[in-house]
Write a structure and sequence with these properties.
Elements: H1 4-12, H2 22-35, E1 43-47, H3 53-60, E2 64-69, H4 72-80, E3 84-87, E4 100-106, H5 115-125, E5 126-137, H6 142-147, H7 165-174, E6 178-185, H8 189-200, H9 211-224, H10 227-243, E7 248-254
Parallel strand pairs: 1-2, 1-4, 2-3, 4-5
Antiparallel strand pairs: 5-7, 6-7
Helix pairs in contact: 8-9
């Protein structure tokens, strides 16, 4: 496992993706709407909250929000927004136990050194009947099968663990949660192109360039502005979830009430 300094140096070089696109804002609001049935104490914790964009939107919807984040750069941005944030890996001793309605972690658990400890901490902090929601790359995705060693997600020390539906479910089963569902959605065209460049034109391959993100954002914008393409996207995501081949795992786990 990487040392603290190795991680500090790596995340200090992370790219800044700028302001949220209208499409990302829409998706975040949809996610918040899905959290409404679990809203009881009005408290939400995001593990690995980046610059706090999701927490800002949640606060606008009336949630009492808290975050954790690793990088010094992001911590400063979050605190400038008046959001409570704790630096470093998730430490349950910083919080009241069983106090959050929702604990979420978006594309973070693959970065964590001790995933069992992370899953247990998340379970300790969510209230009985509350929701744990997380996303992470899918190791069994169609993209990984096509690109193999050139799959851009294979990146040390950025990504330390890889999951499929079964391994993610087992991790949170062991932590004491009950699975509500694990979807596998999406195919990143940008990531496929990035893998092709890495394989066939390695001198053109440049990590930490926003090419993949920008290509995917442009494609999503075209899809969501076209009702026919949006219908195809919904059908495709259904197929990807049934087959387990989507790029992203989206896990929903609930803490039992007894």
């Amino acid at each position: 496992m990487p040392l603290d300094k190795e991680l500090d140096d790596f995340y200090a070089a992370y790219p800044d993706y700028g302001s949220l696109s209208p499409l990302t804002i829409k998706r975040y609001r949809e996610l918040l709407q899905n959290f409404e049935p679990f809203r009881k104490n009005n408290r939400l914790l995001e593990v690995g909250c980046g610059h706090g964009a999701f927490l800002e939107l949640a606060r606008q919807e009336g949630w009492e929000v808290t975050g954790t984040e690793y990088s010094d750069k992001s911590i400063g941005v979050i605190r400038s927004k008046g959001i409570t944030v704790y630096q470093g890996e998730l430490d349950p001793s910083n919080f009241s136990q069983s106090s959050f309605d929702v604990v979420l972690s978006l594309e973070v658990i693959e970065h964590v050194r001790c995933i069992e400890q992370e899953a247990t901490a998340m379970t300790q902090l969510v209230r009985p009947g509350g929701l744990i929601y997380l996303t992470t790359p899918n190791y069994f995705s169609l993209s990984r099968r096509i690109l193999q060693a050139n799959w851009g997600v294979l990146c040390y020390p950025e990504h330390l663990h890889y999951f499929n539906r079964t391994s993610l479910r087992k991790l949170f089963d062991s932590a004491g949660t009950r699975k509500l569902g694990v979807a596998t959605t999406g195919i990143s065209v940008g990531r496929l192109r990035e893998g092709w460049r890495k394989r066939h034109r390695p001198t053109d391959y440049r990590p930490f360039v926003n090419t993949t993100y920008n290509e995917d954002q442009q494609l999503r914008s075209r899809i969501f502005s076209n009702a026919f393409l949006e219908g195809i996207r919904i059908v495709l995501n259904t197929i990807l979830t049934i087959t387990g081949l989507g790029d992203t795992l989206k896990g929903r786990f609930i803490k039992p009430e007894n």
